[in-house]
């Protein structure tokens, strides 16, 4: 069968015909197990268990389904009652459902459920015996922190939802399920807190999710690209995390989380520019230290995007701006280098990106070799061989490290290269052009109706409390007003370190 | 399809003016010769200018590199033609932004410096905040080439010494722009730092200042005279005055001036102009070269009156020297009268008289000795 839409097929009351329907659908599939058995010790009604070996938990099937059915002592019952009796008195499992839709039955089997066909019924019992193996909960490697919870999401949506529920013990935490992907039929779940999240954003989100027509979804990245605003922009209008505490924090501010089965990366939206600079540890550490780190991150954003461009502009166009001693040291470093500064800068940026990418993809034992080759051969040897000037190595290293400091991955490299090209033929004039273009672009982006740069140009104390600085928790008594109408986070008279004030 | 073609077309049209007609001023730093300073001389026979530039170079030795300087000189009918001739010798264009000093020889200065400094002031590649320095005895190139170790950059060294001049106040801070400003105002003369090569190889001595009348050099003042000149002009920041053999006690005292205020009061009486100069220096005793204790009340008074007397006589001597020998209003007295007594100034101009030469001055020094360092006693020799 080539199609995977079975809603036209109807079950009949004959066991053999029903089994043939299923066998036809799963033709050539040898992992499906068909277990025929009769109800009760006295040879009674025939029935058939269907499940997939490995997806379903065979211990539960043996102990809680097959054993009670075979050993039950149903002496005489009306045939039409047998299904109710099985569900009520015999089966020792919790989640049993009656189904007639072939589509649901097929998906249930594939998902690890056990289907019980009974002779004489055009209906089946679907028993939840999902027992596939999942990765255990561990700290996500991409977002390590020093202080704070160490749990990370896994590939199983059930586990992920449980992690989230443990943090938000609240009946208002809602989750909406939707299946996306013609072939993969991936479960996607939208989580939000009713009463805090805005309804119109939810509607828009569901509309966009329903509009996705794709044959498969293997990671939440697919969804992100399909529904994000400003799809050509290097900026992320939807950000992601692998940490349940981060998701819980975002939900509390009125945002939405999109989970995708099979992916440990959870999307949160709408997202704004300042979120790029926010790490969950900021909220767990002392607010003074966190504010300092925030400031460093903004500085690093500037360094990561601009330093090569400014260096090239000043060294090749505006030499008069350099103090004499600095000029002399740049001059003596540059002397004998055969390439123009711009070629040098471009080359070093590309080499750094190559090293970074190679370090990511390499098997871990080989990774060390990469760092030695990168640091020694390309850095020191290139300078000694007068192929690259020493200031350029310093600048490349500085920008490379600076762009790694941001908690969220951002298109810094693209911006850096554009700035570099502009300043290589127009000097600082070109660089300023680039900055103006970037600001205009950022100001024009919206994420699900929320302006991307909101609160960045603001000077109001309640607006900047979580941007360049991280205000103490007792001061952040209002939720960010753009995401929610229910802005009161703490009652104003209850805020503050109360013991101290009295 | 059409839209994408339009976008490409707009992109091409936009790129052409930016890359082709734009201000392409891309120049690599290592393809320029960084000029640290220049010296200007004049050949008396051919009447041609010789320009000598000091260019910063670096030689790499393994991973480190040694910074030193090279000299190029060339002749030309004007400064620019000489400079272009230098470019012909270096092979790469000169980068003038970092030039720190313009050394001008005595002979050029005697003939007038305007033809020499105009290019420095006019060209956009040069900065007018170069130090202007006049040589005495030596040619300018000799001073510029006076290295005491091979990797020294003479111009940067001269720049440092000029910057520290305020510690001693024995030569004026003469920037090119302030000289050009100064000679523009009527009747005023300018003083410019003067140097000569020291007796030992590689040292450059500051010998006070060179006095200009309009743009021509007329004479020199030595370091001490320069100190009192700066004192009258209220431009002194720090300075040192040494008194020898105070009150015949065989003890010499060094006073360190760390603050000074000078008040000039122009007066006009019965067709005669006079000026009251009130000098208020604040000083500390920084050296006592003998055994007499000057912290005692009566000795301190003697010291104060002797110091005041010395300053007074030196100031009066300087003014009379400028009036009689040079006839050169470096002190800006004419300008002062023009500002505060414009009518008197006008009258004098009508009659063709010069205020500065006919001026009588009265000098009052109000010295204040505030402290005596860490100790109040002289070093006592035990018996």
Q: In what order do the strands lie side by side in the largest sheet of chain A?
A: 1-2-4-5-3
Radius of gyration of chain A equals: 30 Å
Mean pLDDT across the residues of chain B is: 85
Q: How many independent structural domains of chain B?
A: 2
- SSE run of chain B: HEEEHEEHHEHHHEEEHEEEHHHEE
Strand content of chain B: 25-35%
Distance between the termini of chain B: 109 Å
| Quaternary structure of the protein | heterodimer
* Number of β-strand runs of chain A: 12
Query: How much of the polypeptide of chain A forms β-strand, as a percent range?
Result: 5-15%
Q: Would you tell me the structural class of the helices and strands of chain A?
A: alpha+beta
How many helices of chain A? The count is: 16
The dominant shape of chain B is globular
Please state the average pLDDT score of chain A. 85
| Main interface: chain pair and counts | A-B, 27 and 25 residues
Number of strands of chain B: 14
- SSE order of chain A, as H and E? HEEHHEHEEHEEHHEHEEHHHHHHHEEH
Main sheet makeup of chain A: 5 strands, antiparallel
Give a quick account of the main beta sheet of chain B: strands, pairing sense, barrel closure.
Answer: 9 strands, mixed
Tell me the number of helical segments of chain B per DSSP (H or I, 4 or more residues long).
11
Which features would summarize this protein structure in a list?
heterodimer; A: 502 residues; alpha+beta; 3 domains; five-stranded antiparallel β-sheet; 12 strands; elongated; B: 383 residues; alpha/beta; GMP Synthetase, Chain A, domain 3; 2 domains; 11 helices; globular
Could you explain the architecture of this structure?
The complex is a heterodimer of chains A (502) and B (383). With 502 residues, chain A is an alpha+beta fold. The relative contact order of chain A is 0.08. Chain A is elongated and about 105 Å long. Chain A folds into three domains: 15-127, no CATH class; 157-271, no CATH class; 286-447, no CATH class. The mean pLDDT of chain A is 85. In chain A, 44% of the residues lie in helices and 12% in strands. Chain A has helices at 15-25, 58-71, 82-90, 102-111, 157-167, 199-210, 220-227, 244-252, 280-284, 287-316, 324-334, 341-361, 364-384, 390-403, 412-444, 498-501; strands at residues 32-38, 46-52, 96-99, 114-118, 124-127, 173-180, 186-193, 239-241, 256-260, 266-269, 446-447, 450-451. Chain B has 383 residues and is α/β, with parallel strands linked by helices. Chain B folds into two domains: 30-221; 224-383, GMP Synthetase, Chain A, domain 3 (2-Layer Sandwich), CATH 3.30.300. In chain B, 33% of the residues lie in helices and 32% in strands. Chain B contains eleven helices and 14 strands. Chain B has helices spanning 2-21, 79-90, 106-111, 114-122, 140-144, 154-163, 176-184, 223-232, 297-326, 333-340, 342-350, and strands at residues 33-42, 49-61, 64-76, 94-95, 101-104, 131-135, 190-197, 204-213, 216-221, 239-243, 252-269, 272-289, 360-365, 368-371. In chain B, strands 1, 2, 3, 4, 5, 6, 7, 8 and 9 form a nine-stranded mixed sheet that branches. In chain B, strands 10, 11, 12, 13 and 14 form a five-stranded mixed sheet that branches. In chain B, strand 1 and strand 2 (49-61) form a beta hairpin. Chain B starts with a helix and ends in a 12-residue tail after the last strand. The mean pLDDT of chain B is 85. The A-B interface holds A 315-317, 319-320, 324, 327-328, 330-337, 340-342, 383-384, 386, 424-427, 429 and B 18-19, 22-30, 32, 34, 56, 58, 60, 62-63, 65, 67, 95, 97-98, 100, 156.
